[in-house]
Amino acid sequence: MLKEILSISGRPGLYKLISHGNNMLVVESLTDKKRTPAYTRDRIMSLGDIAIYTYGDDVPLWQVMENIYKKHDGKTVDAKAIKSDKELDAFFKEILPEYDEDRVYKTDIKKVINWYNALVNAGFTEFKPQDAEKKEEPEAEEDK
């Protein structure tokens, strides 16, 4: 699901991929539903391609989003209540205890919180990609 959600450098908010053409994408803002073009010169990142650094293997963003969703019962996170860097660290340690504090910056954590809030406000309740669900099913059958 997060593969279709894009972050475009220099533009606020998140965008849903609608269509693609020569040297451009047609995207729709999650907040105001306006459609605009995004060109190849724009730095475009799919949220499905983002992972968070940990001391072990990197954790895909969808797992972090699911952890936040479960911890906050599907409600948005009050980002203004998290004022200091220590509170920000404590919040993220509850979500992802093994995250690498040296490589994950405070601005990254704030961005994850803002993205989570934007997705929940847009009606997203499922963050796990469909291909991850298919990979897990054969393993469950093998255990039987």
List keywords for this structure.
single chain; 144 residues; alpha+beta; 5-stranded antiparallel sheet; two-stranded antiparallel sheet; 4 helices; 7 strands; 36% helix; 21% strand; disordered C terminus
Count of DSSP E strands? 7
**How much of the sequence is in beta strands?**
15-25%
What gap, in angstroms, lies between the N and C termini? 29 Å
Could you list the spans in which at least 5 consecutive residues all have pLDDT below 50?
A: 139-144
Output the radius of gyration.
Answer: 16 Å
Give the structural class. Answer: alpha+beta
* Series of secondary-structure elements, N-terminal to C-terminal: EEEEEEEHHHH
Shape, please?
globular
The chain-level mean pLDDT equals 90
Number of H/I helices? 4
Helix content: 25-40%
Strand order of the largest sheet: 4-3-2-1-5
**Strand count, sense and closure of the main sheet?**
5 strands, antiparallel
Write the layout of secondary structure elements.
Layout: E1 5-8, E2 14-21, E3 24-29, E4 35-39, E5 44-46, E6 51-52, E7 59-60, H1 61-71, H2 85-95, H3 106-121, H4 130-143
Antiparallel strand pairs: 1-2, 1-5, 2-3, 3-4, 6-7
How would you summarize this macromolecular structure in one to three sentences?
It is built from four helices and seven strands; from the N terminus they run βββββββαααα.
